[in-house]
Structure formats: structure tokens, C-alpha cells
Amino acid sequence: MTDQRDSTAVTTDWITLSTGDGPMRVYIARPEQPADRAVIVLQEAFGVNDHIQDITRRYAARGFLALAPDLFHRNGVGTLGYEQHAEAMPLIGAIGPDAIVTDIEAVLAQLVEKEAVPAARTAIHGFCFGGRAAFTAATGINGIGATVVFYGPGIAAGPHTVVDRAENIDAPMLLHVGADDPTIPADQVAAIEAALTSAGVDFDSYVYEGAGHAFACDARPHMYVEDSAKTAWQRTHAFLDKHLPAHS
């Protein structure tokens, strides 16, 4: 399992937050020592499943307060199996930019009011659909500390494209995509990079040869590419440590 640290001291729980669209459950993982930096982990198309919970715990093991909001709270689905891709598509298609911003703002408010962690010390890290959601949140919420996008389709094409909003991004961004990912073809990668460059965003974008969609998902062995995943995670941790350094 990529970059798995000892998580025996991590404590986990589910909390419920109020949003403009009703209550939203959030999986939360706390490190052994109180944290002054946080990561909001955004789900794939399958909900806050075991894999997303595991990533949340991994971040807590690295000293972050980590939270994974249930972005499916409006439809009450919870989680889907990885074989239920067809069922997942209309669910994520129904979640537009305004809904994403509403949900992330609720988590950020919780962090400020209950955990004393400001937005500037909070990163948003999304996978697959959550990658699109992380990019979207960065275009709609100012003052966050950093954004990480792992293979997020729909940013530069589709019904909820937000690449034209790149000028609103004020946080550094890191993007990872597989060269063989059919959901994010090379022209879309180029469009995203061009928009971020034109907007003056501080960003790094990496394309991994021989890797496809979900190449960092070790819960799906047939898609997992260990070398690319390891490199992407190393780059991610270095990026977050640079922009959200741990305070001694």
C-alpha cells in the first residue's frame, strides 16, 4: 500500500455537518497529536468508501487532521461498489459546481469554528470525480492553502466544466494524470495547463507514462500502477509540506 504509515494512534469518527442542502456526514481521522493543518479528501465516483477512508487515515498518520465529506448526501446513496460504474455516473453528473462549493465551505467552517484550523492551513485533495470537485472548489473558494487533483475528469469538458474559471484560483495546485487515461485525453490536459498558466496560478502538472485512470488506487489492482502511484504520492507530500509546513 503506497506510503502507508503507522496509523495505530489515529482515531476516527463520523460527524454530521449542516449544509445549505441538508445534513452531510463527514468521516474524520485525527492524528495522535493535535493538528494545526488539515486535508479535505474528496471521494471518487463511489462515495466515502473503504479506500477513501484509508487515505484519510493515511493523512492523519502524517499529522494532518483529515476529513472526507459524503458528497452523495443529497441522494442518500452512501457508497457504491467499484463494479457499479454505470450507477455512479448519473450521481456524480448531478453534482454541479455550486453544490460542491456549498459542501466544502461547510467543512472549512467546521475546521475554523471547531478545530481552529484556518482555510489557509487546509488543503483539498480529490480523486477521480473528487479531482474535478477539488478543482471546482479552488475556483469558488478563496484562501485555501493548496489543492491536489488526482486524475479528475470533467474539468475541461462535460456539463460541469470549470476550466474557464481558473482565473479565480488563488491557491497553489498540483495535478496528476495518467498518459493512458481515456477520461482525460491529452487535449484536455493541455487545456487545463493553458488555463492555469494564463491565469497565473502557481501549479505543477504531471503526466505518468504507462498509467491510466485511477492509477493510484491500490484498492483496484487491475488499475493500480505502483511506480507511478509512489511517485505521485511523493510529489504530493512534498507539495503539501512546502505549502502547509508542519509547525514544530
Verbal overview:
- The chain has 248 residues and is α/β, with parallel strands linked by helices.
- The chain has a single domain (11-243), classed as Rossmann fold (3-Layer(aba) Sandwich).
- It is built from six helices and eight strands; from the N terminus they run βββαβααβαββαβα.
- It has an eight-stranded mixed sheet with strand order 1-2-4-3-5-6-7-8, sandwiched between helices.
- β7 (173-178), α5 and β8 (203-208) form a beta-alpha-beta unit.
- α3 packs across α4.
- The longest helix is centred in the middle third of the chain and has 19 residues, at 97-115.
- 46% of the residues are buried.
- The model has no long low-confidence stretch (mean pLDDT 95).
Strands, helices and their partners?
Elements lengths: L10 E9 L2 E9 L7 E5 L7 H12 L3 E5 L15 H9 L3 H19 L6 E6 L1 H12 L5 E5 L22 E6 L7 H14 L3 E6 L17 H18 L5
Parallel strand pairs: 3-4, 3-5, 5-6, 6-7, 7-8
Antiparallel strand pairs: 1-2, 2-4
Helix pairs in contact: 3-4
CATH domain class name: Alpha Beta
| Number of beta strands | 8
What's the CATH architecture name?
Answer: 3-Layer(aba) Sandwich
Number of helices: 6
- Unreliable sequence segments: none
Helical proportion, percent range: 25-40%
Radius of gyration: 16 Å
Structural class: alpha/beta
Q: What percent of residues are in strands?
A: 15-25%
Element order: H for helix, E for strand: EEEHEHHEHEEHEH
Could you say what the CATH topology is called? Answer: Rossmann fold
Q: Number of domains in the coordinates?
A: 1
Mean pLDDT: 95
Looking at CATH, the homologous superfamily is Alpha/Beta hydrolase fold, catalytic domain
Output the strand order for the largest sheet: 1-2-4-3-5-6-7-8
Largest sheet: 8 strands, mixed
The coarse overall form would be: globular
Termini separation: 28 Å
